[in-house]
Every structure is written in C-alpha cells, then in structure tokens.
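Entry 12.
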Amino acid sequence: PKSLKGKNIQLIKIDDLDIKILRILDSDGRIPTVDIAKKLSSTVTTIKSRMDKLKKGNIIRKYSIVIDWEKIGYRSYIIEINLKNYNKKYEIMEYVRQNPNLWFIIGSLGHNIDLEFEFVLDNITKLHDILKDLSTRFPESIKNFQYFTLKKIHKMGGIPDF
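Predicted 3D structure (tokens):
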C-alpha cells in the first residue's frame, strides 16, 4: 500500500490496454463493449474483463454526462470560500450538501481557497440568497468568498499521458 495524507491506498496496476479503454470511455461513456473491442483490435471478453477490473478497483467510479446548462435556462456558478475557522469546514460542507442545486464540492484547494462549491441555478438572485444564507449561518467561520460563472468549458476530461 502507498501512503497518501495518512491513508493507505492500494495501487492497482494498469497497462496500455487499460489506458486505451479509459480514453475511449472518457470521450463516450455509453459506447458498447463490442465497439471498444473493434477499435482496439481486441475481443469483447478481454474488454469486458478489463472494464470489470477497472470498476472493481474503483478506477472507473461512474459513467457520466456533460450538460450544457445554458440551453435549458440554467448557469453554473462557482463559489470559492476562505475560512477563518477551519473547525467548521465539514459542518459548512454538510450544510451546503443539503442544497438541491449543488453540483459539486471541493475541499482544500490551496491558494487561499479552502472550499469550492458549484451550483446550477436559473438566476443570480438565487446565488446571492445562498451567499447571504452562508454568511448568516457561519459568520465566525467564513473569512471571505468570491464567485463567478462559467461561460464556456473549452476542455473537460481527458486521460493524461502516462
């Protein structure tokens, strides 16, 4: 096991075929196994076995989609928070997790950002309501925050070169 931040992590060996499978799935998570086998000049049995191994090892954790929120009347808003009381970090995360418009949470980013939340909302007033609520509920914990919206994502995903 490899130690990372006090956690023991069991590394799973992957090879070039596994990486090629991951790259194909990254661009199209719904591609049939038979099509992956054809693209990689392999058998369906081999590809299925490799995908099962990647799932069992939690390398493939889920299959996902990318949504163009603007096309359905929504926008993605990012809130970055700097804390002055780190003891409340997980309480803030748990509180925000209850919001049905929360898309994701990232903790401990560095560069003076302690928490990052992304919300999908239909107007900026709702974002202001969330910020006011957080400031009211955790006045002694939040040093400051900034927010912005994503207009366009130019690249998402991709498997790095190993």
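Annotation: The CA atoms of residues 23 and 160 lie 9 Å apart. The chain is about 35% helix and 25% strand.
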